Amino acid sequence: MEPIVISFALSEEDIKRSLREVWKRKKLWKTAIFAAVFLLLCADFFWVGNFFVGAVCLVAGVAVVWVPLAGINKAAAQSAAANLHYEITLQKPECTIDVRSPYEEEAHPYNVGYESLYALYETDDFYILCMTKEKIIPLPKRALSQEENERTAALLEAVFSDKWKKK
């Protein structure tokens, strides 16, 4: 199989959407549980007439949901990833990721083998390569033609089958 070479740059909106996707997959259920607990406590305290504690629980329930979303927007706005150019070469048994800055500094290629990839997600807009629990490289599907998209999905699924998580 011939290698697939994908060149792209990430926009701030790409970074926001990819971070939201990772948050939804990894932490949404925890956030929902905490928000539900705080809101149930809020209703209980309001019911018994303790309005101060009820108001504190209401604020905490809203904050549990709002803070991660605000953090994603702030992280995307301050991310240096929007200033980088990526070139990913996919071929069995690994992929090479070449990251270049716009300042013509030295490129930093590195190979992503099976062991070095934590997880791999496919969403409607991205293939998200999780290098660790915290470091991700979103590969936007808009950078691919239809044929390249099908070949990329097949190759990633073949190489990283047990780490592959579809929509």
Question: What's a concise summary of this model?
Answer:
By secondary structure, this protein is an alpha+beta fold.
Task: Characterise this structure.
The chain has 167 residues and is of the alpha+beta class. The chain has 2 domains: 4-10 and 82-165, PH-domain like, CATH 2.30.29; 21-78. It is 47% helix and 25% strand. It has helices at residues 12-26, 28-48, 51-78, 146-159, and strands at residues 4-9, 85-91, 94-100, 108-112, 119-122, 126-130, 136-140, 164-165. A 4-stranded antiparallel sheet has the order 1-2-3-4. The chain starts with a strand and ends with a strand. It comes from Zongyangia hominis. Keywords: Membrane, Transmembrane, Transmembrane helix. Residues 112-149 form the YcxB-like C-terminal domain. This is YcxB family protein.
Helices and strands, with pairings:
Elements: E1 4-9, H1 12-26, H2 28-48, H3 51-78, E2 85-91, E3 94-100, E4 108-112, E5 119-122, E6 126-130, E7 136-140, H4 146-159, E8 164-165
Parallel strand pairs: 5-8
Antiparallel strand pairs: 1-2, 2-3, 3-4, 5-6, 6-7
